[in-house]
């Protein structure tokens, strides 16, 4: 009976968001309360579960997400992202232009949230298509596949960062493994798959082609790369150095402190404030205005993440999590494949990668305590599943369709298959790393 309540809960969540058009945070809150009642949690304790779910989820996540949004917004506003893109184009030339766009998407996508990166890179894609007279979909897919991968696999993006917190994984190792998995996923779903799209006719709306910042006003390439990728460098460096220093020494303690995601993101924002802000002639007031706008951009994302935390807490407090774990333990499917499959199913039904990842975490987390599995790889497995087959219930699907002026059939042929390839190649990469670690 309890498992039936959970199934009804998940189905209700999907229907509220997709059919009822209810805001995802409100849907999570409503479903969580009714699920708690259905699972027999006393009325007096349901509110405690709600508050604990929000607090535990956002407590260690809100700083990373907010600071990440601030950094990404300044990278975009300062022209650093444009400088990186222009430099990549110059380095690769017309023959390998889709590879240049793929690498640009990966570099720019790490600090930028997906929607920001999408809107920022679209003018570049169209500009290249018009300049070199190349099919826009063929040019755009490699870059957008890279943006998608960073959104699903790499901290400090909201879903992977939240999963790291929920599974008590290590953000540094998740990032290292994530980058290893990302490269083949982007190559297969990007330049290789894009070759099949050369003949797809698309006439992007000219109104979407915006004016770029004049070259002389852009920050330098070294400054742009260092400021944008500072969190990646710091997380990877501290993670690797900790392998070689004594675990209980002073240096180890310092590295652990500096390598904490909150501290890394704070240092990155402070650095960017100087390098991409003050040194570029911006006033402190204008920089703070950029940061304030960035927080508005991610406010709803944080609420959705907290809503998923509420549902997870209700499942834990009701005791049904233990029952779910015992049922899942009876499955012969590998835990990483199970996490990927559940996330993929919810993603296809629901549309949102973030909601799919976080909902899966609440279902799968009890299993983590009973079956030995690397939590960093579970983050990536669920992240891969959360990117599976984007279609008409996903905002990203419609962004791609409308910007590239495609039919629904063309969008499924290009965008939906690209997302599916990212998902499948991603889980294959995760399983290979798991095999290597275990051997």
UniProtKB/TrEMBL annotation:
The chain crosses the membrane at residues 26-46, 58-76, 96-125, 137-154, 174-194, 225-245, 257-278, 298-316, 336-365, 377-400, 420-437. This is Gluconate transporter. The keyword Aminoacyl-tRNA synthetase does not apply. Belongs to the GntP permease family. It comes from Adhaeribacter arboris. Keywords: Cell membrane, Membrane, Transmembrane, Transmembrane helix, Transport. It comes from the Bacteria. Its main location: membrane. It is found in: Cell membrane. GO terms for molecular function: gluconate transmembrane transporter activity. It is a multi-pass membrane protein. GO terms for cellular component: plasma membrane.
